[in-house]
Write a structure and sequence with these properties.
By secondary structure, this protein is of the alpha+beta class. It folds into 2 domains: 14-114, Galactose-binding domain-like (Jelly Rolls), CATH 2.60.120.260; 123-281, TIM Barrel. 20% of the residues lie in helices and 33% in strands. The chain is built from 5 helices and 14 strands. A 4-stranded antiparallel beta sheet has the order 1-8-3-6, with no helix packed on it. The chain has a 4-stranded antiparallel beta sheet with strand order 2-7-4-5, with no helix packed on it. A 4-stranded parallel beta sheet has the order 9-12-13-14. Helix 3 crosses helix 4 and helix 3 runs parallel beside helix 5 (256-273). The termini are far apart.
Length: 291
Amino acid sequence: MDSARAYTGEHSPLIKLDGAAPRGVAQAGIMLRQGRAYSGRVVLAGDAGAKIAVSLVWGPGPNDRQTVAIAGVQPAYAKFPLKFTAGSGTDNARLEIAGTGSGSFHIGAVSLMPADNNHGFRTDTIALLKAQRSGMYRWPGGNFLSAHEWRDAIGDIDKRPPKWDPVWNALQPNDVGTDEFFTMTELLGVDTFLSVNAGFGDAHSAADEVEYVLGSVNTPMGKLRAANGHPAPYKVKWWGIGNEMWGDFQFGYMALKQYVFKHNLFGEAMRKVDPTITLLATGNTPARATF
């Protein structure tokens, strides 16, 4: 893992080659359906003597694979397209990135999904969600919010390193952020409800998020949103401050008197950016409430 030439995050895999014997990395556990097309991309950098290929493997036989030879790899990182058609169905396919020849190569990022994906989302999943006829979706949801840094989840997906989620002790791929959430809600035809991090977050960051979502391109955050491919402001009325901040299990939990003060700091900062937004907080109810 090379930290000197990382494509994103702290390090990127460096594969050192040794002639004809292939060297590289592989990931198993991929679900394929026979005859279905899959597309993606890989970000690579390498020496002139490196011959790199990416293979989708669906069985143990020598012909149970499809291989894409990567041409034009240079010392600088670049993206290369991937296209495969599964020759068989399996729930344990493998994606291999391997090289032969001399020198070395770096792997910056890799992505593979069904070719008929809808703006990065599975079409079958979108259809199922749309059938639920939900009125509103919230982002981010649950305790995850209290350690989520929204600025780490915008911009080029391949340049976002995965993030460790200390709340649930899990690795988050970080492929879905604010802009992707809006893409999904547009595909589903539902309203949006955004929550800001009142756990480990701060009022200034929350105000910046409001400006990123609602600000014009003449504002600093609106300009950043436009640079990320969305010149027009999004339409969001409902904004939540924090998630279950009354619970001592919540990251950033504090005494009630302190949190009331913190909550008001958030509200004042957010409404300075847009006074028309509607703010909500998350309250507690008895576990055995009577209805």
